[in-house]
Design a protein that fits this description.
Elements lengths: L15 E5 L5 E2 L10 E5 L6 E2 L12 E3 L14 H7 L4 E3 L5 E2 L5 H8 L10 E3 L12 E3 H19 L3 E9 L2 E9 L16 E5 L21 E3 L15 H5 L2 E3 L12 H4 L10 E3 L5 E2 L2 H7 L3 H11 L6 H7 L10 H4 L11 E4 L2 E4 L5 H4 L2 H49 L4 H6 L1
Parallel strand pairs: 1-3, 2-4, 3-5, 5-6, 7-8, 11-12, 12-13, 13-14, 14-15, 16-17
Antiparallel strand pairs: 8-9, 10-11, 17-18
Helix pairs in contact: 2-3
Length: 431
């Protein structure tokens, strides 16, 4: 016997080797591997590693049983000779181990398709890389995972041609799901791929020559969650309004393009289908001009109105609901950028140009950029808004006063009933 606990060189004609329930921890040598036909290493609970290069010379191996050990590492694709020998097996059993999903199991899928894989339904792997820091342990069917990966690889080649696709698996909402990241960055593309591989949730088209993202509307296989389109020549995303992507994206990056604020579907972007959904959009360096429209339509003093309201009215009213219900105050919603700065993740560094200078958009004021009649129009608009907010306060005070009167009247009626035993006049008429 050698240091590994395997039989030594005296078995020169050994063809069948079975080791069960032993204390083996690692196998890195086989006696006369060129003669082996049947090899079984099973139920060895301390066996954690097999040096896959030992199969480089197992040219006659027909049956390989490595079941119910604690193996986690699979052969690398670079081990061509060992994989070639293993691909010719008539029987393979790898079940009952602790395989890591990071390894490539495509040769296992080929044996499964050929009917040589035993216990394929019980062959599982763990995605230890994506589960770091998680207390939930997800197990994935290797056969199903490799089947999906094979499909994605074929679709990636046929649908995206020059792009790279990364297949990953993850546990989500109590079930196993698969995701694909498609990287088409710096490929000199002038249009988006007509189709994407199945399970695609992220598309990176940074550094191309794109002028439009309209193709996103036609992606039907799975809603895209992340789209990175930095460093292109895009001028508008208005056609994405009401699309599945605009409603459901989690990250949308459009840095270093040519999109004006008026070509962005502002209200559609901030719609959140579920309470817990998080959305981020990035708009840095889109060559914005500090004009009067920018100052009056993107940067109106929304926050100042909110602060004024809560100073004047110390009651638990929802100002935004009241503003939405009132037709007088629709202009107060023009301050989209300030209101939704938690969604526009780079709002604090968004700049616009005026006279060769860069001005933060959030600090842009009408009196800096509006001239002549436009400034007068802006002043008139501000005056109208002040009048509107005064009316709003008046309405609120009247409603509060009415509620107080009703509350006092109700308290008096209760007191009168318990003191004198008589109902209020209106109650006697109703009864």
């Amino acid at each position: 016997m050698n240091e590994s606990g395997l039989p030594g060189g005296q078995f020169t004609k050994l063809q069948n080797l079975t080791i069960r329930q032993s204390n083996l921890t690692r196998v890195e040598w086989l006696p006369h591997p060129e003669r082996l036909i049947h090899l079984e290493l099973s139920n060895n609970t301390q066996l954690r590693d097999v040096a896959w290069h030992i199969f480089n010379r197992t040219t006659q191996l027909d049956v390989l049983i490595l079941a119910n050990n604690t193996l986690s590492r699979m052969a690398k694709l670079s081990d061509d000779s060992s994989l070639a020998n293993l691909s010719g097996l008539s029987t393979l059993d790898l079940s009952g181990n602790e395989w890591d999903c990071v390894w490539d199991f495509q040769f296992v899928l080929k044996l499964h398709e050929r009917g040589a894989l035993v216990n394929g339904d019980h062959l599982m792997c763990k995605d230890t890389k994506s589960q770091q820091g998680s207390w939930i342990e997800w197990n994935y069917s290797i056969v199903k995972r490799e089947t999906n990966k094979k499909t994605v690889n074929a679709e990636c080649l046929s649908r995206t041609k020059c792009c790279d696709c990364k297949f990953t698996s993850e546990g989500k909402e109590g079930r196993v799901s698969y995701t694909v990241q498609v990287d088409c960055s710096y490929k000199q593309l002038t249009s988006l791929p007509a189709q994407l591989p199945s399970f695609t949730n992220e598309l990176d088209v940074t550094g191309n020559n794109l002028t439009s993202l309209d193709q996103v509307i036609r992606y039907r296989n799975q809603p895209l969650k992340i789209l990175i389109a930095d460093d292109n020549q895009i001028v508008s995303i208005r056609n994405l309004s009401n699309s599945d992507f605009i409603r459901n994206f989690s990250r949308f990056s459009l840095k270093n393009n040519y999109i004006s604020p008026y070509e962005i579907p502002l209200e559609d972007i901030v719609q959140v289908p579920t309470e817990f959904q998080i959305k981020y959009i990035y708009l840095y360096n889109n060559s914005w001009e500090c004009d009067c429209n920018m100052a009056t339509k993107v940067r109106v003093r929304y926050q100042q109105w909110i602060q004024l309201f809560y100073i004047c009215v110390p009651f638990p009213f929802d100002i935004e609901i009241l503003l939405m219900m009132s037709g007088f105050f629709k202009n107060l919603f023009k301050d989209w950028l300030w209101k939704y700065r938690n969604i526009v993740n780079d709002s604090s560094i968004l700049l616009c140009s005026r006279d060769g200078k860069k001005i933060p958009v959030l600090h842009l004021l009408p009196n800096l950029v509006c001239e002549g009649s436009r400034l007068n129009d802006t002043a008139a608009l501000a005056e109208q808004e002040e009048h509107d907010i005064f009316l709003l306060h008046a309405i609120i005070y009247v409603e509060v006063a009415a509620i107080c009167v009703l509350a006092l009247k109700l308290a008096y009626d209760f007191w009168h009933y318990f003191r004198h035993g008589s109902l209020p006049w209106i109650a006697t008429k109703l009864l």
